[in-house]
Automatic annotation (TrEMBL):
Record-stated family: Belongs to the glycosyl hydrolase 13 family.
PANTHER family: ALPHA-AMYLASE
Catalytic activity: Endohydrolysis of (1->4)-alpha-D-glucosidic linkages in polysaccharides containing three or more (1->4)-alpha-linked D-glucose units
SUPFAM superfamilies: (Trans)glycosidases (SSF51445), Glycosyl hydrolase domain (SSF51011)
The enzyme's E.C. designation: 3.2.1.1
Keyword list, A-Z: Calcium, Carbohydrate metabolism, Chloride, Disulfide bond, Glycosidase, Hydrolase, Metal-binding, Signal
Residues annotated as domain Alpha-amylase C-terminal: 405-493
UniProt-recorded name of the protein: Alpha-amylase
Cofactor dependence: chloride; Ca(2+)
Subunit structure: Monomer.
Record domain Glycosyl hydrolase family 13 catalytic: where: 29-396
A Pfam short name: Alpha-amylase_C
Residues of the signal peptide: 1-16
Length: 502
């Protein structure tokens, strides 16, 4: 299908209408990654929180049957990425639970994107039983539940050692995981069957794990055979699945994201690595005036932007929930800026990098509990429920269709900009108070800062910002408060005028 989108490049920003390819509703813009959540819990969350707060989609953990791994008395998170078969049976639920989730999420306008693992099967382990009861003979590359046998894999002796060798990266085993040979028509057929099964069950698209480890031509052959989305779930006829591909790239490797952008979007890892340095105070905020492709990022209309994910939280130096002040600010900047399609992480608390999700004595995943202040319990971090994050998702929805305007900086670590005449945001990483009369671009009136509080009737629970009839406002943002940013916009979550008119 020919993907149509409007993309306009301006002096300091790029606005792109992503909805033609993401399949989100026109007034939704952000995906939440509910990592390791159970399907029925995701359905509940779509109805009670994601839809009401304006989130557009949810990325789920891999739905395919995985190997059961016991390590140090627990179940490591990475077992979900060791595939035993394409049966829809995991600790998150079975096919009935999956269908319940997609029906309920789509009914409230939240799209479901499945994390699909098709580059490889498992590594070698002492046990050989999967979450759906399947078994495998690892030594002989025999996975009867698919079925795959030795002829369907690349050379077992070949391991990836040199990331500057593209053929090795794409045709050898990744950390011992048995690498499928996607040049085989049979392998492509089994993967297409798996994808199309998920499409029939109501998904809106796929996050393709380890895409850089597969040849682009082989992926192209797979994508071409995918069905249109299922109209029984509210999708228009002839709607193609949204595809975003994991292509890890920080520079200086043989394989680049541009190798895959003709096939779909790519995950832009440099968003998190660059904004980490900025909001830790190691790179001046003023340079963000050129944020986007000028920072050697992928084109905005091909990028999935994020600060952290389930991998980088554990193995890379990125901002996470454990460093909440700069983390919230980095996410706020990502959501305030028009670059890319945005995804926010929702984690569980962990003490070591292999730790899996909270579980009970029978190794069942424990559901998040919901506290009165909207936060989670039972070991779940639930960053998507932090006020400073879900309010910025609403900000992004309110400013859609606008560009970066009214840029201001103090020459160092205080910046501000508007999104046309719909939103305005300020950041202060200076360590000193910001006191400035700034052009907001917004209509005159009173606005509640959505970072420090909310609209409560005709009052603000946090800071109030008054915009005069010329668009100016006196901004006061201390240097050492809980959050290093404030934001206002014309939507009901911020504008007292909008709240009164509804």
């Amino acid at each position: 299908m020919l993907l149509l989108w409007l993309c306009t490049t301006l002096a300091v920003g790029v606005y792109c209408d992503h909805h033609d390819r993401t399949n989100m509703l026109p007034d939704r813009t952000t995906i939440v990654h509910l990592f390791e959540w159970k399907w029925r819990d995701i359905a509940d969350e779509c109805e009670r929180f994601l839809a009401p707060k304006g989130y557009g989609g949810v990325q789920i953990s891999p739905p395919s049957e995985n190997l059961i791994i016991h390590k140090d008395g627990g179940r490591p998170w990475y077992e979900r990425y060791q595939v035993m078969s394409y049966k829809l049976k995991t600790r998150s639920g079975d096919e009935e639970d999956f269908l319940n989730m997609t029906k309920r999420c789509n009914q409230v306008g939240v799209r479901v994107y499945a994390d699909v693992v098709v580059n490889h099967m498992t590594g070698d382990h002492p046990t050989n039983v999967g979450t759906g009861g399947s078994t495998a003979d690892f030594k002989n590359y025999d996975y009867p539940a698919v079925p795959y046998s030795r002829e369907h894999f690349h050379n077992p002796a070949c391991q990836i050692n040199d990331y500057n060798n593209a053929a090795e990266v794409r045709s050898c085993n990744l950390v011992g995981l048995k690498d499928l040979d996607h040049s085989k028509s049979y392998v492509r057929m089994k993967i297409v069957e798996f994808f199309n099964k998920l499409i029939s069950l109501g998904v809106a698209g796929f996050r393709v794990d380890a895409a850089k480890h597969m040849w682009p031509n082989d992926l192209g052959e797979i994508y071409k055979k995918l069905n249109d989305l299922n109209t029984n779930f509210g999708f228009a006829p002839n709607t193609r699945p949204y595809i975003y591909q994991e292509v890890i790239y920080y520079g200086f490797e043989a394989i680049t994201p541009s190798d895959y952008t003709s096939l779909g979007d790519v995950t832009e890892f440099k968003v998190g690595s660059e904004l980490k340095s900025v909001f830790r105070g190691r790179n001046a905020l003023k340079w963000l005036v050129s944020w986007g492709e000028q920072w050697a990022l992928s084109p905005s209309d091909k990028a999935l932007a994020f600060i952290d994910n389930h991998d980088t939280q554990r193995d890379h130096d990125v901002l996470t929930y454990k460093e909440s002040r700069p983390y919230k600010a980095a996410i706020a900047f990502m959501l305030a800026h028009p670059y890319g399609v945005t995804r926010v992480m929702s984690s569980f608390f962990f003490d070591n990098k292999e730790q899996g999700p909270p579980m009970d004595s029978n190794e069942n995943i424990v559901s998040p509990s919901i506290n009165e202040d909207d936060t989670c319990g039972n070991g779940w971090a639930c960053e998507h429920r932090w006020r400073q994050i879900y309010q910025m998702a609403a900000f992004r929805n309110a400013v859609r269709g606008t560009d970066v305007d009214q840029w201001w900086d103090n020459g160092h670590n205080q910046i501000a900009f508007s999104r046309g005449d719909k939103g305005f945001i300020v950041f202060n990483v200076e360590g000193q108070d910001l006191e400035q009369k700034l052009q907001t671009g917004l209509p005159a009136g009173d606005y509640c800062d959505v970072i420090s509080g909310k609209v409560n009737g005709d009052k603000c629970t946090g800071l109030k910002v008054t915009v005069d009839d010329k668009g100016f406002a006196n901004i006061h943002l201390p240097g050492h408060v809980e959050d290093m940013h404030l934001a206002i916009h014309v939507g009901k979550e911020s504008s007292l005028q909008t709240s009164h008119n509804e």
